[in-house]
Design goal:
Strand content: under 5%
Distance between the termini: 44 Å
Number of domains: 1
Shape: elongated
Order of helices and strands: HHHHHHHHH
Oligomer: single chain
Helix content: 40-55%
Structural class: mainly alpha
CATH class: Mainly Alpha
Radius of gyration: 16 Å
Largest sheet: none
């Protein structure tokens, strides 16, 4: 979609964050969708996706918008990105997924939504660690254990 086809709100968002277009880079590979995901701006993210924002874009650390939604522990944003078809199991250069990040950083809201959306709990990082191995809080540990148990019994 061209700049002319964007609504005023989306144009204002892009301009206020220094983006030239819906897939622009404001530095370090940060795209508008990543910025909206980090801030938990679901409506902006949906508009960006509708305007052609790339779900598979990666920042300088090799992470997608889903990872940044987890940084902010934005459950609704995780849901919006999952509904749009983002790869839930995308691994960065170290083999870490958004699920592993959410578990290791104690982000239970995002973690619960990733689990509900079907993120793969068995994936391992390059060091052979899973999200369960990395759980930094009792709440995250219980979420992961509960889901793993549900899969074993289901």
């Amino acid at each position: 979609m061209t700049e002319a086809g964007l609504d005023d709100g989306l144009r204002a968002f892009l301009a206020s964050h220094g983006f030239a277009d819906v897939n622009g880079d404001a530095g370090a590979g940060l795209t508008p969708l990543m910025q909206a995901s980090l801030a938990g701006e679901c409506e902006v993210a949906r508009a960006l996706i509708a305007a052609g924002a790339k779900l598979d874009a990666r920042n300088g650390d090799g992470n997608t918008a889903l990872w940044l939604a987890c940084v902010g522990d934005h459950a609704a944003m995780v849901d919006a990105l999952a509904a749009a078809g983002i790869d839930l199991d995308s691994q960065n250069e170290n083999g870490f997924t958004a699920l592993m990040y959410a578990a290791s950083a104690g982000k239970p809201a995002a973690l619960a939504r990733l689990i509900a959306a079907g993120a793969n709990l068995a994936l391992e990082s390059q060091d052979g660690l899973t999200a369960l191995d990395l759980a930094a809080s009792l709440e995250c540990l219980n979420l992961l254990r509960g889901r793993r148990g549900a899969r074993a019994n289901g």
